[in-house]
Amino acid sequence: MRGAVVAREVAGWLGLVAGMAIFIIALGLLMDQRLLEAVPATFIGFVVFRGGVHLLKSALALRAVLAAEKARESAAPNRPWSDGGRGAVTPAATDSVRRAQVSSRR
Question: What are phi and psi of 78, to 5 degrees?
């Protein structure tokens, strides 16, 4: 999965650079007063730039998910009926506590 993060980041940065290059080309077209050619170039530059930003955001999100999974795996073993070492919690015990809470609300 590490390769997916790196590939998305590289593609995102390339998209940003390409979008900026297209904007510079559109600016040159505007300086030459070639408006009909500058409008599509500006739109294409915007789309490419936004695509690069999106790739960078998705790479950052993937990196955060991978870090959270790694932290969760190293935190504690999976014990479905445990309350952190203070004693075993069984389904019957949780049902009786739940019934007590419901009856106290009435």
Answer: -80, 105
Find tokens 């504690």 and name the residue: 76
Spell out the alpha helix ranges (H) of the chain. 2-31, 35-75, 91-105
All residues at 6 or more sequence positions from 35 whose CB lies less than 8 Å from its CB, including other chains: 29
Which stretches in the chain have pLDDT values below 50?
none
User: Residue 88: phi, psi to the nearest 5?
Assistant: -75, 140
> Are 35 and 8 in contact, with CB atoms under 8 Å apart?
no
Q: List phi, psi (to 5°) of 80.
A: -65, -30
Rounded to whole angstroms, the Cα distance separating 11 from 13 reads 6
pTM attached to this predicted model: 0.65
